[in-house]
């Protein structure tokens, strides 16, 4: 341990007791991966849940959906709370709720309590944007780029690495054990963050915008619920359309309200700046491109060969998909150096272009197992580059006291992309029209259409990245960001 001033100087934070920077980055990355792991923890047994829980498929869908909904809603809110009351404090609270939710889910005697536990697990996702903001407060700018890249990449890494872990556990033990594993991860992350991560005194104070919190929660719930359940309810059903249009109207009113109060939950004027706006729009497209492959490849790998698939077991398919997450991890230090040298905007555009190339290969080539392995690794390279660039772009133009809320909103945009991809691509595959032993399965044309959607999203992301204007931040407002990050 040693004593030092954080990079912004004494006006940003008082004297802070700092461990090694690499240890801070590693701990925050571990916490982020643990939180994102909760998104895929039940995917290996998703189809078996109706039998395991003794309820209908429509009910068990909430076990998956509630985690995504709560994560999307709580992420920007927790970012704002971190700006106000301390990012480490809020991160510890979220990790505590994640661990509590895992225990509740492990002991749940009914599906209702299981859904409650899964909702608490979803709250942990806010640790990722908070971790990025903590790095800005406490790291020297020479280490900031690679640190941001690693923590930001955990949004994809956790799911990629978590899938084989959860598959292994559920194949060999009672399915409740996976929640005890999740509880252990959450508690370990909680202890490490409490012990290693320093406290930043950079806080805004003020009052929480309770009306803004309620409005955002209601609006996002309507929109995300319609998107995530549209395939089951029917896209033209009154329930789906009512939630979608109602949520959109609430969000418009919420935006009008946020522009007229002194201490908003989200400063939409900052969000409307060209750099932030185009980066967030690109985040939606990249999230869609990422999750399109996450939906297509597992089904293609696990579908029997007689039905046009590749005939792998769940564990085999998970191991084929896992290297993508390892590549995201490996790309983090590279992405940090590239952003420092060439700028974050070219990095984001390059990452999106790499993903587009991978989808072109997937569409043109008749996919075999090793093709899927290579294509998914290339997707991981693109995601590693793009996810590293997004927070760096945003923090160039966002005041230092709003980084938590701004990064939380960007994480929400990525979640909107992944949720939309799950619904749209899942719908395309479900409507494929093929049959195998009397069961509907995706056809070759359905797989190709889904991959084309991923290609379209990555091309849109590339174009949006190229349209990002070069910001002109005030030097005193962003003293901790690396030189030449744009």
UniProtKB/TrEMBL annotation:
<keyword id="KW-0812">Transmembrane</keyword>
<dbReference type="GO" id="GO:0005886">
    <property type="term" value="C:plasma membrane"/>
</dbReference>
<dbReference type="InterPro" id="IPR011701">
    <property type="entry name" value="MFS"/>
</dbReference>
<feature type="transmembrane region" description="Helical">
    <location>
        <begin position="347"/>
        <end position="365"/>
    </location>
</feature>
<protein>
    <submittedName>
        <fullName>MFS family permease</fullName>
    </submittedName>
</protein>
<dbReference type="InterPro" id="IPR020846">
    <property type="entry name" value="MFS_dom"/>
</dbReference>
<feature type="transmembrane region" description="Helical">
    <location>
        <begin position="208"/>
        <end position="228"/>
    </location>
</feature>
<keyword id="KW-0813">Transport</keyword>
<feature type="transmembrane region" description="Helical">
    <location>
        <begin position="371"/>
        <end position="394"/>
    </location>
</feature>
<feature type="transmembrane region" description="Helical">
    <location>
        <begin position="317"/>
        <end position="335"/>
    </location>
</feature>
<feature type="transmembrane region" description="Helical">
    <location>
        <begin position="175"/>
        <end position="196"/>
    </location>
</feature>
<feature type="transmembrane region" description="Helical">
    <location>
        <begin position="21"/>
        <end position="39"/>
    </location>
</feature>
<dbReference type="Pfam" id="PF07690">
    <property type="entry name" value="MFS_1"/>
</dbReference>
<feature type="transmembrane region" description="Helical">
    <location>
        <begin position="90"/>
        <end position="116"/>
    </location>
</feature>
<feature type="transmembrane region" description="Helical">
    <location>
        <begin position="148"/>
        <end position="169"/>
    </location>
</feature>
<feature type="transmembrane region" description="Helical">
    <location>
        <begin position="277"/>
        <end position="297"/>
    </location>
</feature>
<keyword id="KW-0472">Membrane</keyword>
<keyword id="KW-1133">Transmembrane helix</keyword>
<feature type="domain" description="Major facilitator superfamily (MFS) profile">
    <location>
        <begin position="24"/>
        <end position="472"/>
    </location>
</feature>
<feature type="transmembrane region" description="Helical">
    <location>
        <begin position="59"/>
        <end position="78"/>
    </location>
</feature>
<feature type="transmembrane region" description="Helical">
    <location>
        <begin position="446"/>
        <end position="468"/>
    </location>
</feature>
<feature type="transmembrane region" description="Helical">
    <location>
        <begin position="240"/>
        <end position="257"/>
    </location>
</feature>
<dbReference type="InterPro" id="IPR036259">
    <property type="entry name" value="MFS_trans_sf"/>
</dbReference>
<dbReference type="GO" id="GO:0022857">
    <property type="term" value="F:transmembrane transporter activity"/>
</dbReference>
């Amino acid at each position: 341990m040693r004593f030092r001033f954080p990079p912004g100087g004494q006006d940003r934070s008082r004297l802070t007791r700092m461990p090694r920077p690499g240890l801070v980055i590693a701990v925050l990355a571990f916490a982020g991966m643990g939180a994102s792991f909760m998104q895929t923890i039940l995917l290996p047994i998703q189809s078996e849940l109706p039998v395991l829980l003794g309820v209908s498929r429509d009910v068990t869908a909430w076990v998956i959906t509630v985690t995504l909904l709560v994560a999307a809603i709580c992420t920007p809110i927790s970012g704002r709370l971190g700006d106000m009351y301390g990012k480490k404090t809020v991160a510890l609270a979220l990790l505590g709720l994640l661990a509590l939710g895992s225990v509740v889910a492990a002991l749940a005697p009914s599906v209702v309590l299981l859904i409650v536990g899964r909702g608490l697990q979803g709250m942990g996702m806010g640790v990722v944007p908070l971790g990025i903001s903590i790095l800005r407060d406490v790291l020297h700018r020479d280490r900031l780029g690679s640190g941001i890249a690693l923590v930001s990449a955990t949004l994809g890494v956790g799911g990629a690495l978590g899938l084989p872990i959860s598959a292994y556990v559920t194949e060999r033990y009672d399915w409740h054990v996976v929640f005890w594993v999740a509880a252990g991860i959450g508690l370990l992350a909680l202890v490490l963050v409490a012990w290693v991560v320093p406290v930043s005194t950079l806080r805004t104070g003020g009052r929480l915008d309770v009306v803004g919190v309620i409005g955002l929660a209601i609006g996002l719930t309507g929109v995300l619920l319609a998107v995530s359940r549209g395939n089951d309810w029917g896209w033209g059903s009154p329930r789906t359309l009512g939630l979608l249009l109602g949520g959109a109207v609430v969000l418009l009113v919420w935006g009008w309200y946020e522009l007229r109060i002194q201490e908003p939950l989200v400063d939409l004027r900052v969000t409307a700046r060209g750099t932030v706006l185009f980066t967030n729009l690109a985040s939606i497209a990249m999230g869609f491109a990422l999750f399109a492959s996450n939906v297509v490849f597992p089904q293609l790998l696990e579908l029997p060969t007689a039905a046009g698939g590749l005939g792998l077991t769940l564990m085999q398919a998970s191991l084929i998909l896992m290297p993508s997450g390892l590549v995201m991890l490996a790309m983090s230090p590279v992405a940090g150096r590239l952003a420092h040298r060439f700028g974050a905007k070219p990095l984001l555009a390059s990452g999106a272009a790499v993903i587009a190339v991978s989808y072109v290969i997937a569409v043109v080539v008749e996919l075999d197992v090793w093709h899927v392995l290579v294509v998914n690794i290339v997707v991981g390279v693109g995601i590693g580059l793009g996810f590293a660039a997004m927070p760096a772009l945003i923090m160039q133009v966002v005041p230092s006291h709003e980084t938590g809320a701004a990064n939380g909103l960007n994480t929400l945009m990525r979640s909107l992309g992944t949720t939309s991809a799950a619904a749209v691509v899942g719908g395309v595959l479900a409507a494929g029209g093929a049959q195998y032993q009397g069961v509907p399965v995706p056809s070759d044309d359905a797989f190709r259409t889904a991959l084309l959607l991923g290609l379209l999203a990555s091309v849109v992301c590339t174009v949006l990245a190229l349209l990002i204007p070069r910001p002109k931040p005030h030097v005193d407002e962003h003293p901790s960001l690396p030189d030449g990050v744009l």
